[in-house]
Write a structure and sequence with these properties.
Layout (H helix, E strand, L loop, with lengths): L6 H24 L2 E6 L4 E6 L5 E6 L7 H31 L14
């Protein structure tokens, strides 16, 4: 009589490996910053890798000549940094999960 493989233990080990990979990816994301730019670099906004905290803003002196334009550039730089943060999160989690789409398990999209 041949032995049946214990798929329960194999599945548990895979889940544990996935969890460890996701924790490592999240730690890497949290330790990273992203920079969004606008106006050809006249305005730069630096965010935490998770996109939840502003780290810094750099504004070139020539960008301050027109306040309305400066306000638009700051908004554009923030949006660029948020987009980069989302890309970082998506890419790192995809690496950690081997491309597995976890969004479908939770009724939504992955970041």
């Amino acid at each position: 009589m041949s032995e049946q493989p214990d798929t329960g233990n194999d599945l548990f080990a895979q889940v544990m490996n996935l969890q460890a990979g996701m924790q490592a990816a999240q730690a890497e994301i949290n330790a990273t910053t992203v920079t969004g730019t606008a106006g050809g670099g006249l305005v730069q906004v630096e965010l935490s890798g998770s996109g939840t905290e502003a780290v810094g803003v750099t504004i070139a002196p020539e960008a301050a000549e027109e306040i309305d334009e400066l306000e638009d550039l700051v908004v554009a730089a923030i949006n660029d940094a948020l987009r980069r943060s989302a890309e970082l999160t998506r890419d790192r989690l995809a690496q950690a999960t081997g491309g597995l789409d976890l969004g479908s398990f939770f009724g939504g999209e992955t970041p």
